[in-house]
Design brief:
CATH architecture of the largest domain: 2-Layer Sandwich
Number of strands: 12
Bound molecules: thymidine-5'-triphosphate, magnesium ion
Strand content: 15-25%
Strand order of the largest sheet: 5-6-1-7-8
C-alpha cells in the first residue's frame, strides 16, 4: 500500500508571487496588514526570506529586523481559499481518494495497481504536474507505505521534489532526530519525554508501552510511540472535511491595560464566533479563550458549556468567565475566542 502526502511549497507566498510576478526570487513576507511597523505575525515567508531566519508565527517587527529588504504583504485570505480550492480540485481530478489535511496539504491514495516505489514516485510526479498545470503552483510530495510516513517524508522532498519513506529507511532517516522531529509530537511533549530519559525518535520507538501508558496516559502514551515508529494502518479518508470550531482573534495595535476593555473585546469576538456557529447550524459545546500578554506570552483556557447552545449571550458569558480565570492585571496584546461544535453524526 502506498500513500502520498502533498504539501504546497511556500503556499501563500507563492500565491502572492503569482499575481505579482516581479516578486519572484525576492524575500517576501505575508502577515497582518503587511506593515512591519504594526503589530502582527508572519503567516508565511518565501524561501528567500527564510534564508534570513524569518519564520511563520514570528512578529512582523522581528521579521523586518532579520530581513529589512523583504517585501511585506497583507494577508488576503479569500484569495488563498480560492487557490486552496483549485489545488484540491486538481488532486481530486486524479480520481483517487483525497483526504484534505489543511489549507495546502492533503493525503492522496495511490491506485492499487501501483505496486512498487518507482510506480508511486511516477504517480507523485504526475500529481505535481497536474497541480502545476491547473494552478501554476509547485508542491512537494511525500511518499510512504502509510499516512504517517508519507507526512514525515514531505519536508525532505522540499522544494518541488519527492521523498520516499518506508519501514526500510524509517529508522535511518528519522531515528536520531529529537522526538519532536516527527509529525504529531511537539516541544511540550518532548520536554515530558526528556524527563523520562527519552530524547530521540529511536528511543521513543523502543520505549516500554506500559511505562508510557503510566507516565503519559493509557491512550496517548502508546499513540506517541506509534508516531515514533511510523506505524499507521488508517486509510486515506475522503469524507469531506467539517470545521470543528469557529474562532476569531485580534492583535491590538496598542496594548489593552483596562480589564473592562479586554472583556468588551472578548465578548465582541465571542459574538462573532456565535454568529458563525449559527451559520454552521450546529450548536457550540465548548468555548476556548486565548490571551497573549505583553511582551509575548500566550495562555489558553477552555470550558465545556452546561448544554450545547448557539446563543450569543451564553457563549459570550462563557468567554467572559474564562477571562476571569486569567491574570486580569497584565497588559494584553491579543485575544481570541473560539466556539467548538459538536461533531457531525
Ligand atoms: P505550511 O505548509 O506549514 O508552510 P508553507 O506552505 O508556507 O511552506 P512549506 O513550503 O514549508 O510547506 O503552511 C501552509 C500555509 O498555512 C502557509 O503558507 C501560511 C499558512 N500558515 C499560517 O498562516 N500561519 C502559520 O503559522 C503557518 C505555519 C502556516
Ligand atoms: Mg506548505
Amino acid at each position: 500500500m502506498w500513500v502520498l502526502h502533498v504539501d504546497l511549497d511556500q503556499f501563500i507566498a507563492a500565491v502572492e508571487v503569482l499575481r505579482r510576478p516581479e516578486l519572484a526570487g525576492l524575500p517576501v513576507v505575508v502577515g497582518g496588514r503587511g506593515d512591519p511597523t504594526e503589530r502582527g505575525v508572519v503567516s508565511t515567508a518565501s524561501y528567500e526570506a527564510r534564508e534570513f531566519g524569518v519564520r511563520s508565527g514570528m512578529p512582523l517587527r522581528t521579521a523586518a529586523k532579520k530581513c529589512p529588504d523583504a517585501v511585506f504583504l497583507p494577508v488576503d485570505k479569500p484569495t488563498y481559499d480560492a487557490a486552496s480550492e483549485g489545488v484540491m480540485d486538481a488532486l481530486r481530478s486524479l480520481e483517487t481518494a483525497v483526504e484534505i489535511l489543511g489549507w495546502d496539504e492533503a493525503f492522496v491514495a495511490v491506485p492499487d495497481e501501483v505496486a512498487d516505489a518507482d510506480g508511486a514516485v511516477a504517480f507523485a510526479k504526475a500529481i505535481q504536474a497536474r497541480v502545476l498545470e491547473r494552478t501554476m503552483l509547485h508542491c512537494s510530495v511525500g511518499i510512504g507505505d502509510n499516512k504517517i510516513r508519507a507526512k514525515n517524508a514531505t519536508d525532505l522532498g522540499k522544494p518541488r521534489g519527492t521523498f520516499v519513506l518506508t519501514r526500510d529507511n524509517w529508522w535511518s532517516v528519522v531515528g536520531d532526530r529529537p522526538v519532536d522531529g516527527v509529525w504529531g509530537i511537539g516541544g511540550k511533549m518532548a520536554a515530558r519525554f526528556a524527563r523520562l530519559g527519552i530524547t530521540t525518535v529511536r528511543e521513543l520507538g523502543a520505549a516500554d508501552d506500559e511505562v508510557l501508558a503510566k507516565e503519559i496516559g493509557p491512550t496517548m502514551g502508546p499513540w506517541y510511540r506509534r508516531l515514533a515508529r511510523g506505524v499507521d494502518t488508517s486509510p486515506v479518508d475522503p469524507t469531506p472535511w467539517v470545521p470543528r470550531s469557529h474562532g476569531h482573534e485580534v492583535t491590538f495595535q496598542v496594548d489593552l491595560t483596562d480589564p473592562a476593555e479586554v472583556e468588551a473585546e472578548v465578548r465582541r469576538l465571542a459574538e462573532q464566533a456565535a454568529y458563525d456557529v449559527v451559520e454552521d447550524g450546529r450548536p457550540a459545546v465548548r468555548v476556548r479563550l486565548k490571551i497573549r500578554y505583553v511582551p509575548f506570552e500566550t495562555r489558553t483556557r477552555s470550558m465545556t458549556l452546561p448544554q450545547p447552545t448557539s446563543d450569543a449571550v451564553t457563549i459570550a458569558d462563557a468567554a467572559a468567565a474564562l477571562l476571569e480565570r486569567t491574570d486580569r492585571t497584565r497588559a494584553v496584546r491579543l485575544v481570541g475566542v473560539a466556539a467548538e461544535m459538536a461533531a457531525p453524526e
